[in-house]
Design goal:
Layout lengths: L1 H27 L2 E6 L5 E9 L7 E7 L3 E7 L4 E9 L4 E7 L9 E5 L3 E6 L2 E7 L19 E4 L10 E3 L2 E5 L1 E4 L20 E13 L5 E11 L6 E12 L9 E11 L5 E3 L6 E5 L11 E3 L15 E8 L2 E9 L10 E3 L5 E4 L7 E3 L5 E11 L4 H12 L3 E6 L1
Antiparallel strand pairs: 1-6, 1-27, 2-5, 3-4, 3-6, 4-5, 7-8, 8-9, 9-10, 11-12, 13-19, 14-15, 15-16, 16-17, 17-26, 18-25, 19-24, 20-21, 21-22, 22-26, 23-24
Length: 406
């Protein structure tokens, strides 16, 4: 009995010493974060970085002697995000991170129902994603009952910018992803034109994860590219979407959200994508824009619909939706394959997508995922090319960050 009591005392002592050591370690693991503007004047910049050590996901506070405090949102893999209010070109600023988590209301929120998850920035709807099924009208058959796409896309003033289940092109679904001309295992499934009955894209296992926070909200979801041309359906491609929705910027003028698409072949055979004029991540504009006189396009070079086939860093599409003028610009990231990617701009309809297959055949090989990143900004009124280009520069060349342990 005496031995057991002594062992119990030793165990209690060791536990206490362990907790004291862990608390001391946590207190010692303080960080400073230095952000550098580089060659650009920064204004409401979305900044991200990685901590060198494990940090619990959550919300923290960072403070600077010159500019006060900001919220830091830490997610998986020690990845931190914050909004830099402003910083002039050539300057830098250092923040000290308070490693005690804080309770704070989210600037970007989510609401979930049986079929969609909707994200709001500063109280206004930004996008909804179909993690479940849509509801096709009676004139469309079950081939068009699906999910795995974004609709509606909203302007800051609440104008609907996207369209889906359009009788003219019911396979066009807001913001969606598909490949058109392909070769797989000796067959040629078309995942874009679902009415061809050779392929389709379906959501897989519903919604993987969704979150909200002061810096961003978002979700991850998985899709299957299903080859229907085989004797039995075959999943040719696995796709993951990661979407981040940010607070409204520019004094409420812009909604901002990012889409990262990762595609991995599901078998030991590659998916071959022959040269073709469209395919990839598409956008279908509001039904009112079906009138070519009402829907407009703009590229950085000042081109409209004649910008089809050009290689651009961003493209605007807009028009009057229910009488209100609004638009969206889709920004391509420099890391994307064949950047700046060529674009498909339809000669009459409000359809757009970056189409890297215009430049020749592509192959998605086993063990080598195809990854693309796009940023979407929405606004009301006429497009401001200077502001759009400035936001592309922010996206393409974010501020530099150095993290140091104190």
């Amino acid at each position: 009995m005496l031995i057991n009591k002594n062992l119990s005392k030793v165990a209690v002592l060791l536990t206490a010493l362990f907790l004291i050591a862990m608390n001391s370690l946590c207190e010692a693991q303080q960080y400073s974060v230095t952000v550098s503007a580089g060659d650009l004047d920064r204004n409401e910049s979305i900044v991200s970085f990685y901590f060198p050590d494990a940090v619990e996901p959550g919300v923290y506070s960072m403070s600077s002697e010159t500019s006060g405090s900001v919220y830091l949102q830490v997610g998986e893999n020690n990845h931190g995000w914050f909004i830099l209010d402003e910083l002039s070109a050539g300057n830098s600023r250092t923040y000290r991170v308070d490693m005690a988590q804080v309770a704070v209301s989210s600037n970007v929120t989510k609401s979930l129902d049986a079929n969609t998850v909707t994200f709001r920035a500063n109280g206004n709807d930004v996008i909804s994603y179909y993690h479940g099924y849509n509801s096709p009208p009676d004139e469309l058959d079950d081939r068009y009952k699906r999910g795995g796409y974004i609709h509606p896309v909203m302007s800051p003033n609440g104008v609907v910018l996207s369209n889906h289940l359009n009788p003219m092109h019911p396979h066009h679904s807001g913001i969606w992803s598909a490949w058109t001309r392909t070769r797989f295992q000796g067959r040629t499934p078309d995942f874009w034109n679902v009415h061809s009955n050779t392929g389709r894209v379906d959501q897989a296992d519903s919604l993987e994860v969704a979150w909200e926070g002061p810096v961003h909200a978002g979700f991850r979801a998985k899709h299957h590219f299903v080859d229907l041309s085989a004797s039995a359906p075959v999943i040719a491609l696995n796709e993951e979407w990661e979407v981040k929705v940010y607070p409204t910027v520019g004094n409420g003028k812009f909604h901002v959200f990012d889409l990262k698409v990762t595609q991995t072949v599901n078998t030991s055979q590659p998916l071959v994508l022959p040269e073709y004029r469209y395919g990839g991540v598409g956008f279908r504009g509001h039904g009112d824009w079906d009138d070519p006189e009402n829907g407009t396009f703009l590229t950085p070079e000042g081109l409209g619909r004649d910008g089809h086939g050009s290689r651009v860093r961003w493209t605007h599409i807009g028009g009057h939706s229910d009488g209100e003028l609004a638009g969206i610009s889709i920004l391509g990231h420099p890391s994307n394959f064949r950047h700046p990617q060529t674009v498909r701009i339809h000669p009459n309809e409000p359809f757009f997508n970056y189409a890297p297959t215009q430049l020749g055949e592509m192959i998605i090989e086993p063990g080598s995922p195809y990854v693309v990143n796009y940023r979407y900004i929405t606004y009301d009124g006429e497009p401001d090319p200077e502001a759009i280009d400035r936001m592309w520069q922010e996206y393409a060349y974010p501020p530099g960050v150095t993290v140091r342990k104190q």
